[in-house]
Amino acid sequence: MKTLEETKVKVESLPIGMFQIGGRFEDLIPYGNGHINGTYLLTTLEGDNRHKYIFQKINTDIFKNPVGLMENIDLVTRHIREKLKKLGQDPKRGTLTIVPTIDGKTFYQDMSGSAFRMYDFVEGSRTVEEAKSPDDIYTSGFSFGVFQSMLSDFDASKLYEVIPDFHNTNLRYQQLMTAAREDKYGRLSSVKPELEFFISREKEYSLIGDALASGQIPMRVTHNDTKLNNILIDEKTGKGICVIDLDTVMPGSLVYDFGDSIRFGANTGAEDETDLSKISLSLELYQAYTKGFIEGCGNNILKEEVDLFPMAAKLMTLECGMRFLADYLNGDVYFHIAKEGHNLDRTRTQIALAADMEFKFYEMEQMTEKIYTAERGRI
User: Fold this and answer.
1) Which stretches of the chain score pLDDT less than 50?
2) Which residue among 64, 67, 202, 304 is the one 20 to 30 A from 369 at the CA level?
């Protein structure tokens, strides 16, 4: 364990004392594998009792409005907490608990504009970085389904739009076409087949947005980063405890969250795999996630939303591919790259995955319908 002296520089540079914590400082260590915010595990000692907290420096280069960001998180976690209390469940484990500052705020911002927040640490929990089995995918789907169920009666219009037009697929297409027209780095000639793939599917890009605009599907709270490692898993039972990393919580459609989960959770290959024969949609994993998600949502999901699941998986894959290709044409300015042509490799995996989804689309539709019908009969 690090001593106070060994962590003195970090402690002095971080405003830990601005939060309502119990006990005296004992330890502070970097925590987790996140790449956006600076995250630490803080331990304090009060008599014979140890208290643990997650302490974070919010990346204000990406999240430029920490007030709106933290208001979103506060509203959503308060709503879930009240639901858990009514159900007789432990709100300390079922959702994140914000530790207030000494003046009762949800975060602290210093004179330089740096922003910090703190959560209670959820004991007896772990995260899983990569799915090892269909059971892991089912757990992910069920947990995000429960998250949707808990927030089904929450007015999503109250939330600040952290990243405007995040899942505006039409806009992503227009941004790609602008990048192609400008061709700032002379790369267009090498990506003509990839660009044509996206151009040929232009008519599909407004399907979900139109369904939202027309009221065919409702505006809901969306998580927008539905990776498996954003779920806390109970160390004893292996079941999901709660959804974490709520920075991108904002208004949208739950089908976006579903589709993006399938895009990275049911792909048989890595996002930057160069051997495209390894890229495909695993129907087994698609089935496991869909079953978990629908069961987690319970009665709080519409048939009109479920009918869009296969298309949402495809559109989120196409959208991601367009973003990778636009960034490649723009000189790799947004996504971090580890090698030359990295974003082009990523583009090609998304194209291969979307093409395989098209090949298996009927099976995806049939599987989704069967799961939904079985769940309605069970309820």
Assistant:
1) 1-9
2) 202
